[in-house]
Every structure is written in structure tokens, then in C-alpha cells.
Design goal:
The N terminus is likely disordered. The two termini are 28 Å apart. Strand 1 and strand 2 form a beta hairpin. 39% of the residues are buried. By secondary structure, the chain is α+β, with helices and mostly antiparallel strands. Strands 2-1-3-4 form a 4-stranded mixed sheet. It contains 8 helices and 4 strands. It is 49% helix and 6% strand.
Amino acid sequence: MSEHNPYAATGRDPGLPGRLLRAERDALMPLLRATPRERFELRTACPGWTARQVIAHCGAALVRIVEGRLEEGVFLPEANARDVAEREDWPLERVLDELDRGLTEAGPVIARQDDDRLDAVALGEWVHAGDVREAFGERGAYAGESAEHALPLLTATSRRRGTPGLYAHLPDLPVPLPLGNPCPERPVAEFRGDMPTLIRIYTGRPLVGTRYQLSGATEKELCIYR
């Protein structure tokens, strides 16, 4: 790909996850604190989870990183479900405060890691913020100003998770975004569409009502969360 592509792999930027999380904090927390409580019971794109439960999961995951409670299997579905269940009786304000703390403090901890395994958690928190926005009927789900931080993390995570090589042609990028891992056995796949749809494909979110072109790979192959 072109050397001018701002999202091409140039080595890990340890500060990137923190910048994404702080940008999301500044955008999301005012919305959450101003939203009527009954709206937190709306269902999200995450099967079985309400907006409140998604927020509880996000706060729990980030504070685990902050406090170094990263035992084996900590981010598997069973562990995530336990974290959410533990917060069912918490007042909503406490759930929001934990998320605020996590979005603020997790970035520097992630930056100190020797590898990028926790970088994908930051990306996942941003995607979950999109899940909540969508449930609330807000604009900007899986997009917005913080996308400039999310796209490089998507590039890195798609490579780490072994998805097929793909060039994403997005309206706001001057050159295609390279994702995944090209291999000589198959041509590089092509995506044409907008960024929210690209995020939906790579994170397994519903695609109802979207318009895009995808050739050379299937949606299932591209999903980074399995």
C-alpha cells in the first residue's frame, strides 16, 4: 500500500489506546450522565445485554486492567458475565463512576505493557460505546471524532487475530486501509462502504440496513471477536 497511508503498520504506538479511551470518555460520559435511567434498560447489539450491562462490563474490564487483576481467562464470556452480574445491584451512578475511572486510568497501564494484547480491549470499549449509542438512538455509533484512534487499532488487531488481507475503501481516506494478513494463496479482499459498516463487519455487529460491497472474503472470516 501507499507509504502515505496514515493507518499502515509502523510499529506499536503505546499511547494510542489511552488516547482512544480518553477521547471516548470525553464524548460518552456526558451523554450517559444526562440520559434518563429507564433508557439504560434498552437492549443492545450484544445478545442478552442491556445498555446498563454493557456499561458495567466496560467499567469492570478497564478497572481490572487498572488494578492488575488479569488472571487467566479474565476476558472470556463466562468471566465477563460474572463481572456484569456482580454489578446488578449497584446504583447506576456507581456503574458510571467505575466506567469513568476506567476510561481515565487504563490507558497509561496499557501503554506500559510490553506487547499489544490489551490494545484490543481499548478498541472493544470504543465499539461497546457504539453499541450503547445505537441502543439510545444517538448518531455516531461506530464512528465519530475518536475514529482516528480506533482505525489504527483495528488495523493492528485484525492482523493479530489472523483475519484475511483486505483493502478497505472508505470515503474519508485518500488511500485504502490495509487490514488483516495478505497471503500468496488468495487475492487480497476488497471492501467498499462507510466506516460504521466496516466496524460492524469486523466486530460481528448486525448489518441490517447497511450498504457495502465485499469481495474475496466473508463477513465471518473478518470478525475479530469470536
